Structure formats: structure tokens, C-alpha cells
Automatic annotation (TrEMBL):
Source domain of life: Eukaryota
Name listed for the protein in its UniProt record: Inorganic phosphate transport PHO88
Xref: InterPro entries: SND3_fun (IPR012098)
UniProt entry tagged with the keyword Glycosyltransferase: no
GO CC annotation, single: endoplasmic reticulum
Source organism: Hesseltinella vesiculosa
Pfam families in alphabetical order: Pho88
Taxon lineage: Eukaryota, Fungi, Fungi incertae sedis, Mucoromycota, Mucoromycotina
């Protein structure tokens, strides 16, 4: 039986949720002007809550003070000009970037994505007067936060020994097409190859 996390993270769940909320708004007549301010308060209130919870997770990460060392290869990625970059060796060290910094970077990455989403929803709302994105993203924003890997690890204490929570995290691709996107490499052969390339440079 699939886990709840897998179900709510499925792209088809978001599509079904979008259409359900859209129909509910029309059915209950929530597009009326008197509901507008309430939806704005709901949406931006949720975004502030997500930011506060993100900093709370960062405080938990700092408290744990996990200095575990990570060694992996960040795979080559095609650039805007079509030229593919080289594999990059990433080593977290006690003196530098331990798991503390890795996890904090992941939280900040999620916050940056959230900020881009806020900008887009705000543009659609204030430029074109759309109300639906405010409602949908208010609910999906909370869902997205609590299903992030860092929230699952530090708030819900899920295991990081295997599965999608094992560090380094796998790259999440649209529509679940993860196999089509390069993933971090943790095997010894890839690490040694990247080390040789680094020494040669």
C-alpha cells in the first residue's frame, strides 16, 4: 500500500486537487469581492507561517549539530548554451560543510522556490485578478512544506538510512520522471574518477 507521503506528492494529486478546489470556489460563489481580503490574508498568512517553520527547522538542524561527512558526485548538467558541465566532487567536512550545512542549504533552496511561487501567484492575482491561485496555493503551500524532505526528517523523524530521505537527496523531476534527470553519484568508482579529474585540474 503506498504511503501517504507518496500519494500527496504525486503530481496527479495536485491536478485533482486543483480541479476540486476550482469547482468548490464556483459552487459556493467564493469569487465574490467580499471574500477577496479573506483569501489574501489566508494566502500571505500561510506563506509567513511557512517561512517561520523553515527557520524553526534550521534551528533544529543547528541544535543537532550533525558533523557527519558526505562524499558524492554532483553529475554533469547541460548548460543554457548546450555545453555540458563536468561532474563535480562534493565533500562535506567537519571544518566546512557538514550535514548541518547540507540540510540548511536544502531548506534555503525550498524557501527560494517558495519565494518564486509567491511572486508568480501575486502577479496572477494583482495583474489579472485571479482568486483561485490564492486559495489553491494556500492549501498546497502547507502540504508542500510538510512533505519536504527536511520537514520529514527534522519534524517527523523519518529514517534517513534508505529511500528518498537518504542523503544526498535524489533530484525530484516533474511528473515523477526522475530516471531522465542526472542523480547524485555515491559509488566509489564515480568518486575516485571525480577525484582524479580534480587533481588533474
Amino acid at each position: 500500500m503506498p504511503s501517504l507521503t507518496r500519494i500527496v506528492n504525486n503530481p496527479f494529486f495536485n491536478i485533482a486537487f486543483f480541479f476540486a478546489v476550482r469547482q468548490a470556489i464556483k459552487y459556493f460563489g467564493l469569487e465574490k469581492p467580499e471574500y477577496l481580503m479573506g483569501f489574501r490574508i489566508l494566502y500571505y498568512g500561510v506563506q509567513i507561517l511557512v517561512v517561520l517553520l523553515s527557520f524553526y527547522i534550521i534551528s533544529i538542524i543547528n541544535t543537532k549539530n550533525d558533523q557527519t561527512v558526505l562524499r558524492y558526485v554532483d553529475p554533469a548538467k547541460p548548460g543554457w548554451d548546450g555545453v555540458e558541465t563536468q561532474d563535480t566532487l562534493v565533500v562535506t567536512t567537519f571544518a566546512g560543510k557538514s550535514l548541518i550545512e547540507y540540510d540548511k542549504q536544502e531548506v534555503f533552496k525550498a524557501m527560494k522556490q517558495s519565494a518564486m511561487g509567491i511572486a508568480m501567484v501575486s502577479f496572477l492575482h494583482f495583474k489579472f485578478g485571479y482568486i483561485q491561485p490564492l486559495v489553491i496555493q494556500s492549501l498546497l503551500g502547507i502540504k508542500a512544506f510538510f512533505t519536504t524532505k527536511e520537514a520529514r526528517i527534522h519534524l517527523f523523524h523519518e529514517s534517513t538510512k534508505s529511500g528518498d530521505l537518504k542523503r544526498p537527496f535524489s533530484v525530484q523531476a516533474p511528473l515523477g520522471m526522475n530516471q531522465m534527470f542526472p542523480q547524485p553519484k555515491t559509488d566509489k568508482a564515480s568518486i575516485k574518477k571525480a577525484e582524479r579529474a580534480l587533481k588533474a585540474d
